[in-house]
């Protein structure tokens, strides 16, 4: 049903859109329409010169009638492309050109996620998220305002069209949000000398346009972008635009931007607690006179960074608590189920090869999640009682599956083995296994020797942190709610790529875990030692000199342990 609907939509788009299915410049195969705005359409395309790499192509809805216009287009895009190289917060422009019909287009990195408009429509952002997004926008803007150097000359770049549609947020489960600004250079090109009037080209952007920009002042400076950023921040904080106008006309917007005072936060969103410094910052950005606004982005960054530090302190206190809780691993009563594991033999339907798979083991105490691995006999001995770490990867919007990873290493980190297998969350077996991992908080890893695969040679038990269990539960819930169109194999490929990317991070976690374990043992031994000493009355220690020495040692022990 869903597939039919998708095919129908694609067919409809293909019928309406002359570009879909065609090549641009013999290189970019236009696949699908991503969206359209006031000045053009953005398509998903394949760069055939780069093995079919996904790219986004923006084709402007205009005709470059003369040579001069073509040159100006090339110049503005070229400057925008320099910015994408300088800042991770500006979309990368890969190439640009003009079609046979003299229609300008440019090719960008393809971003996965949503623009800020789509996000604000569906969610209310929390203050730390808003601070983070604004911080990243400001980093991008600062880089542009500082300018690019062309033939030794510095050209500051003003965006001129900062609005939620032009702020793109890459969403990735494993990493933090990355914010990118889109469409640098385009507004300048379109409003200067193309014959398009401001009202025509900016009808969608008027809600974010500075008063001086609306007045058509030629010499706009960075403070025009700062005004637009102010409107954006107001909207992110309150969910509402500062000005409610009667009609979407140029004159109504001009009236509001030039003369109307933005409402107080208390009146428009009394339920939201916004720090005073942030309210003042937004109001300053919205000042009618350019001289009353922050004069450059660095002034805004100072305030945002101060606020972020404040919030991060609050958050890191919370995180410390979580980490402390994570140290409290429950030691499961596993001797019985471990014994059952040791009686197991390698299944006949599995190859005799260094592989890993999962299974749910029935025991008198209930089902226990297990992973079975086959390795060389001498390697197995090195991993018992040594370092191990569990990690798993999942990505939203794909066919739901988890890539489960157990890393084993010997005591000196000279030998490392990566065991991995997929858990299919659409399959009842996969769901049950994950549910059991959540419930029990541990799993057994059964070792079988390649040389003699008949019987399990050893078994170890690995525990999951409270945080990992919560993550598994969240993913299990999520996967039961969503309908995805990607295939199982597509999902596997993406997860495997992600796995390769995070291998070094996992190794670092393994090393950190070992350090933490050593510290815990040292701390426990020190406490035990101190406790034993306190059981002896001082008089029972034979010599006077010895007593002093013990007293000194004990004081040192207390100091040592408080260091960590
Ligand atoms: N590099 C990209 N990767 C993925 N999606 C993109 C990319 N660039 C733009 N988009 C998306 O394409 C859609 C259309 O973008 P477009 O810039 O044409 O629209 P707009 O910003 O609303 O209008 P305007 O023409 O005024 O810029 C938006 O949803 C945008 O988020
Ligand atoms: Mg845009």
TrEMBL record:
Keywords: ATP-binding, Kinase, Nucleotide-binding, Serine/threonine-protein kinase, Transferase. Residues 28-307 form the Protein kinase domain. Its EC number is 2.7.11.1. It holds the Pfam family Pkinase. Gene3D superfamilies: Phosphorylase Kinase, domain 1, Transferase(Phosphotransferase) domain 1. The keyword Nucleotide-binding applies. GO terms for molecular function: ATP binding; protein serine/threonine kinase activity. InterPro entries: Kinase-like_dom_sf, NEK_Ser/Thr_kinase, Prot_kinase_dom, Protein_kinase_ATP_BS, Ser/Thr_kinase_AS. It comes from the Bacteria. ATP binds at residue 58. Belongs to the protein kinase superfamily. NEK Ser/Thr protein kinase family. NIMA subfamily. This is non-specific serine/threonine protein kinase. It comes from Fischerella thermalis JSC-11.
């Amino acid at each position: 049903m869903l597939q039919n609907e998708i095919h129908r939509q694609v067919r409809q788009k293909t019928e309406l859109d002359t570009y879909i299915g065609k090549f641009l410049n013999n290189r970019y195969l236009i696949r699908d329409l991503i969206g359209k705005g006031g000045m053009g359409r953005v398509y998903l395309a394949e760069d055939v010169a780069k093995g079919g790499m996904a790219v986004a192509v923006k084709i402007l809805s205009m005709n470059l009638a003369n040579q001069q216009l073509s040159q100006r287009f090339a110049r503005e895009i070229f400057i925008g492309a320099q910015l994408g190289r300088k800042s991770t917060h500006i979309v990368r422009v890969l190439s640009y050109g003009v079609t046979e019909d003299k229609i300008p287009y440019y090719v960008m990195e393809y971003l996965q996620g949503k623009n800020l408009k789509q996000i604000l429509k569906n969610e209310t952002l929390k203050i730390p998220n808003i601070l983070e997004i604004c911080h990243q926008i400001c980093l991008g803007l600062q880089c542009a305002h500082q300018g690019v150097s062309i033939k030794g000359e510095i050209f500051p770049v003003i965006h001129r069209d900062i609005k939620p549609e032009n702020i793109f947020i890459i969403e990735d489960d494993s990493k933090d949000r990355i914010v990118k600004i889109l469409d640098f250079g385009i507004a300048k090109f379109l409003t200067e000398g193309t014959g398009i009037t401001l009202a025509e080209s900016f009808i969608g952007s008027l809600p974010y346009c500075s008063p001086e920009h609306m007045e058509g002042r030629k010499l706009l400076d960075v403070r025009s972008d700062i005004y637009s950023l102010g409107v954006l921040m107001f909207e992110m904080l309150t969910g509402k635009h500062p000005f409610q106008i009667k009609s979407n006309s140029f004159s109504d917007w001009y009236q509001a931007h030039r003369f109307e005072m933005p409402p107080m936060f208390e009146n428009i969103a009394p339920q939201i607690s916004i720090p005073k410094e942030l309210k003042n910052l937004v109001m300053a950005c919205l000042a009618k006179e350019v001289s009353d606004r922050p004069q450059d982005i660095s002034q805004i960054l100072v305030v945002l960074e101060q606020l972020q530090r404040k919030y991060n302190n609050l958050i890191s206190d919370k995180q410390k608590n979580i980490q402390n809780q994570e140290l409290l691993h429950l030691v499961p009563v596993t001797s019985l189920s471990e014994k059952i594991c040791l009686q197991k033999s390698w299944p006949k339907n599995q190859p005799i090869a260094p592989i890993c798979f999962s299974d749910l083991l029935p025991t008198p105490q209930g089902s226990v999640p297990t992973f079975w691995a086959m390795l060389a006999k001498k390697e197995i001995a090195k991993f018992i009682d040594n370092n191990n770490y569990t990690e798993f990867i999942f990505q939203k919007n794909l066919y739901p599956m988890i890539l489960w990873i157990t890393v084993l290493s010997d005591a000196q980190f000279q030998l490392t083995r990566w065991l991995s297998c997929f858990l299919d969350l659409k399959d009842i077996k996969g769901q049950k296994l994950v549910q059991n991992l959540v419930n029990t908080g541990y799993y057994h890893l059964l070792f079988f020797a390649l040389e003699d695969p008949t019987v399990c040679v050893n078994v170890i038990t690995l525990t999951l942190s409270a945080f990992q269990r919560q993550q598994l539960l969240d993913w299990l819930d999520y996967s039961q709610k969503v309908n995805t169109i990607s295939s199982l194999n597509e999902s596997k490929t993406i997860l495997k790529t992600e796995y390769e990317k995070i291998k070094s991070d996992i190794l670092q976690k393994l090393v950190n875990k070992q350090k933490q374990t050593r510290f815990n043992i040292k701390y426990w031994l020190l406490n035990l030692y101190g406790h034993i000493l306190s059981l002896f009355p001082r008089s029972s220690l034979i010599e006077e000199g010895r007593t002093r020495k013990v007293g000194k040692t004990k004081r040192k022990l207390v100091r040592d342990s408080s260091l960590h």
